[in-house]
Write a sequence for this structure.
């Protein structure tokens, strides 16, 4: 039988007496010894007597207590040592020797046999930054973020209450959870959380001494929404590591087009924030990107550009109303536009023409020059809609500006020509650029007063401009009841590709077709509207005859017209809305599409074709869906590579086109992990210092030097007592001591 | 005074030149002065409003019919004419409810009513009764003095004095509907200052100031029409620097 190897001992008492008796006996012995010794106080040489009596008392005490050495076999209950291994994407970056940071970490663990020395006294719990280390250390590091403190907290919470000896964090320190203040010190919040970990935090800095060179766009601060024609500011945070004293160009692009470029001076490794301010000129969803050049020797090029999406919405529709002369039609349109809270109106009315004689010097007139140059050059882009209302351009020498107007309409401007005696064929626009953007032909015609009876065409019955009652049946009845107009610009018919929405019930144009009263035309990105009369105001003012129906029709007509002219996405019948505008690689992307009917009610069973196209190069993807009862459909994209995407939905219902809608979103690479990828051994050292641990590098790491809490609980399995006392010999010793005491006293004459 | 004399000379000179020029041809238009027909003498100044129409055509781009149209307050035809002129020199009988209702609808829908006292008496029977009826038409809109800085004084001419056959009241009164001056009341017989006989002679002498005051009458009349047609256009921000510079 093998003898156990005892690994612990203790001094114990083998006395069979109860503890109380032992204490009482000891006290009695002590009292007796003291009394006797007190009696020796006047003796000449008391010391020998004191020694003899004290020794005798001690021997008697030993007889009482029976001391022994107890040999024990003990086993410690191991406490947990949480080993947190950084497997984030930054650990996949190469170091100067060509190996990845993670390879360095693996080599370290191999050198130390997976921390076998620590496993003697502690149970090693292995984690990565996302939780328990499931797949082992062989898988390549791909973690999307590095939140070191959260990883330590997860390791703490995973122990189900078992005591912790320590944490051992092996990482490059490239945390991206903002543990530090702007000054580089640990934040107060981080310090508090570290204290709550309950055990020393030891760190091993991987690749801490490796030279790292990288230029990165760390963050882009931009609102997801912006107002068209209003200033937008974008803050781009740029950081250079290993490139001190560098000036780099920072470029802001919209849909690939350069918007602005700034030179950014990076004096040291602290982030520098560059501000871009611009005014978006168009409504819609657009992909913007901030870009830096890729420099030689950079560790990461992926973080040199960052794309983001901005939905540009309109705060108000900016309307320029140019009227050739004051009239009731002009006045009531101005009143409507001024009263419309969604319209920002600039009016210019020609109050005096070159042939008029006001019979007063200029100083007594409240007239200003017609600022044609400003309006139709620099300011033209600031308008969403331009209205030429009974306006003949010729007296104002505007010929040179007409191409600007045409080009602006091609670029998205809405244009309206309203009739009158100085409009259409009477206004000299034939063979000018304006002819291209007017839905009616200008090669002949005249302005004719007389009764006009507006009537919807087939196209007009379906068109949003002429939908005055929000419902097909009632709308047509409403049109039939509306007051007639009192003048008509008779033309030679529709321009090519134009659509008549309203015609006169009886009068014919010069082309013998029903005279068009309201017509539309798509012009490039823009839209144009023609109203071949200056008497629509009679709806507005005649309203009181019919309980207000005509007045409401007037307001709705112009409101519809403006929204149609500016292609207002809010009034689109096909709306495409991704769950977010910014996703991360491998994230699932849900896109919701809503289709509305002409009366803006949900349209079920509408056929949808969704086209997903990367804004740069890349293959398109097409999906077909059908809307449900709520008029919506949802499509989920998976595994899209990083990049910016535009998803376009085309909807049809019963074979008839409903419309299209589009949205953009950005799929980012694991950029959060790569934005600040430089190894940060100082951060790891700060964590260790704050949490009573020790900071190592891969070179000086020694498992035994890890600061940790020893196990507190001991279990005894086997024991053996080695008696230190033999009562027979003790009795002899007592008798001998007492005999010596007696003999000495006798000799000295104390007896 | 010297300024007034200068204006007089200028007016006479330019009027002579203008009289020699034919009035430019104009297409038919839907704007004309509509005189409210009532039991009293509603059209004794009709030629004055016709003359104002003539001056509008000569001096501005406004296309205006030279004929004056009578209209009754209770008639649906009221809505053919957003600008109404109501003049008289005797007390107005109490309006029928239908007339009150229609006039209220007209004014709240965007119409404008110019009340001109042909008797030139601010507290005369015509204006007293007109004020009474206006209180029925727009009970929530108090009649008050039109501020001197109102756009009506700068809608075409920069006007700082009041015209009219007499200067009975050196200001206009008005009633506002949603910040728009819907009713304008003049006690100075504006129409009388502009009225002519069939031979082209002025029907009435004007008070102190002579022809210059008559010119002021036309200018104020033109401004009233401009206001009815353009509303607060001259209050738009783009106009303000020019107007302030000229008023310095």
């Amino acid at each position: 039988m093998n003898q156990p190897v005892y690994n612990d001992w203790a001094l114990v008492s083998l006395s069979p007496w109860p503890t109380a008796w032992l204490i009482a006996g000891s006290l009695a012995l002590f009292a007796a010894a003291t009394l006797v010794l007190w009696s020796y106080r006047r003796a000449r040489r008391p010391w020998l007597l004191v020694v003899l009596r004290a020794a005798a008392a001690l021997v008697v005490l030993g007889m009482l207590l029976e001391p022994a050495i107890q040999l024990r076999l003990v086993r410690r209950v191991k406490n947990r040592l949480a080993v947190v291994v950084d497997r984030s994407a930054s650990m996949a970056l190469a170091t100067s020797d060509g190996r990845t940071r993670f390879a360095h970490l693996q080599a370290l663990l191999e050198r130390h046999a997976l921390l076998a020395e620590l496993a003697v006294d502690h149970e090693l719990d292995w984690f990565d930054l996302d939780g328990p280390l499931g797949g082992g250390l062989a898988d390549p590091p791909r973690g999307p973020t590095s939140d070191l403190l959260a990883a330590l907290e997860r390791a703490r919470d995973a122990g189900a209450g078992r005591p912790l000896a320590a944490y051992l964090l092996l990482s490059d320190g490239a945390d991206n959870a903002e543990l530090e203040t702007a000054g580089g010190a640990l934040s107060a919040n981080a310090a508090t959380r570290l204290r709550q970990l309950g055990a020393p935090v030891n760190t091993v800095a991987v690749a801490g001494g490796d030279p790292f060179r990288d230029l990165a766009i760390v963050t882009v601060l931009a609102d997801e929404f912006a107002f068209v024609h209003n200033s937008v500011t974008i803050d781009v945070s740029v950081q250079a590591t290993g490139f001190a004293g560098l000036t780099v160009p920072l470029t802001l692009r919209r849909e690939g087009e350069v918007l602005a470029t700034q030179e950014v001076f990076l004096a040291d490794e602290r982030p520098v924030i560059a501000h871009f301010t611009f005014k978006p000129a168009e409504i819609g969803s657009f992909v913007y990107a901030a870009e830096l050049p890729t420099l030689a020797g950079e560790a990461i090029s992926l973080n040199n550009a960052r794309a983001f999406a901005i939905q540009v919405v309109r705060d108000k529709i900016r309307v320029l109303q140019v009227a050739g002369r004051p009239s009731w039609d002009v006045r009531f349109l101005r009143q409507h536009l001024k009263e419309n809270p969604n319209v920002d109106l600039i009016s210019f009315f020609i109050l005096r023409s070159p042939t008029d004689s006001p019979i007063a010097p200029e100083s007594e007139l409240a007239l200003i020059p017609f600022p044609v140059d400003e309006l139709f050059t620099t300011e033209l882009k600031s308008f969403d809609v331009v209205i030429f209302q009974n306006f003949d351009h010729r007296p104002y020498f505007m010929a040179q500006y007409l191409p600007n107007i045409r080009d602006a309409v091609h670029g998205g401007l809405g244009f309206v020509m309203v009739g009158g005696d100085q409009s259409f064929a009477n206004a000299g626009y034939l063979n000018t650029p304006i002819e291209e953007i007017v839905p009616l032909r200008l090669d002949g015609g005249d302005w004719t007063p007389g009764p006009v009876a507006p009537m919807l065409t087939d196209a007009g019955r379906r068109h949003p401009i002429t939908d005055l009652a929000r419902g097909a049946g009632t709308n047509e009845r409403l049109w039939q009841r509306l007051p007639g107009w009192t003048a008509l610009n008779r033309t030679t018919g529709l321009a090519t590709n134009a659509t008549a929405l309203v015609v006169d019930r009886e009068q014919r144009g010069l082309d013998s077709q029903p005279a068009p009263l309201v017509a539309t035309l798509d012009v490039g990105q823009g839209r144009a509207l023609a109203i071949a009369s200056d008497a629509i105001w009679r709806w507005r003012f005649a309203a009181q005859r019919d309980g207000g129906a005509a007045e409401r029709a007037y307001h709705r007509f112009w409101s519809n017209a403006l929204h149609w002219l500016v292609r207002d996405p809010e009034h689109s019948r096909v709306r495409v809305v991704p769950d977010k505008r910014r996703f991360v690689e491998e994230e699932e992307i849900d896109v919701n599409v809503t289709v509305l009917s002409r009366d803006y009610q949900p349209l079920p069973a509408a056929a949808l074709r969704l086209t997903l196209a990367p804004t740069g190069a890349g293959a398109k993807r097409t999906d077909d869906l059908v809307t449900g009862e709520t008029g919506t459909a949802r499509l989920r994209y998976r595994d899209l590579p990083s990049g910016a995407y535009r998803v376009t939905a085309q909807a049809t219902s019963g074979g008839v086109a409903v419309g299209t809608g589009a949205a953009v979103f950005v799929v980012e690479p694991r950029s959060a992990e790569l934005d600040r990828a430089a190894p940060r051994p100082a951060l790891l050292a700060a964590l260790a210092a704050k949490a009573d641990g020790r900071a190592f590098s891969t070179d000086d790491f020694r498992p035994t030097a890890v600061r940790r809490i020893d196990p507190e609980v001991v279990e005894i399995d086997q024991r053996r007592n080695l008696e230190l006392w033999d009562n027979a010999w003790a009795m002899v010793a007592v008798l001998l001591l007492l005999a010596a005491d007696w003999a000495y006293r006798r000799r000295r004459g104390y007896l | 005074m010297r300024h007034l004399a200068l204006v007089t000379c200028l007016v006479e000179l330019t009027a002579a030149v203008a009289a020699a020029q034919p009035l430019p041809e104009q297409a038919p238009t839907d704007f004309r002065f509509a005189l409210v027909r009532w039991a009293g003498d509603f059209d004794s100044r009709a030629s004055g409003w016709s003359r104002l129409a003539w001056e509008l055509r000569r001096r501005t781009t406004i296309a205006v019919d030279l004929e004056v149209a009578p209209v009754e307050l209770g008639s649906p035809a009221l809505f053919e004419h957003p600008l109404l002129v109501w003049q008289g020199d005797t007390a107005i009988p109490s309006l029928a409810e239908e007339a009150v209702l229609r006039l209220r609808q007209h004014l709240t829908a965007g119409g404008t009513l110019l009340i001109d006292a042909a008797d030139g008496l601010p507290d005369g029977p015509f204006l007293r009764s007109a004020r009474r009826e206006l209180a029925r038409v727009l009970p929530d809109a108090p009649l008050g003095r039109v501020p001197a800085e109102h756009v009506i004084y700068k809608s075409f001419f920069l006007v700082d004095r009041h015209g009219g056959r007499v200067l009975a009241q050196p200001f206009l009164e008005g009633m506002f509907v949603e910040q728009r001056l819907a009713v304008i009341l003049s006690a100075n017989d504006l129409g009388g200052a502009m009225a002519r006989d069939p031979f082209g002679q002025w029907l009435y002498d004007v008070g102190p100031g002579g022809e210059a005051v008559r010119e002021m009458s036309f200018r104020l009349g033109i401004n009233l029409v401009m206001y009815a047609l353009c509303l607060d256009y001259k209050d738009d921000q783009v106009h303000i620097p020019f107007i302030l510079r000229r008023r310095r």
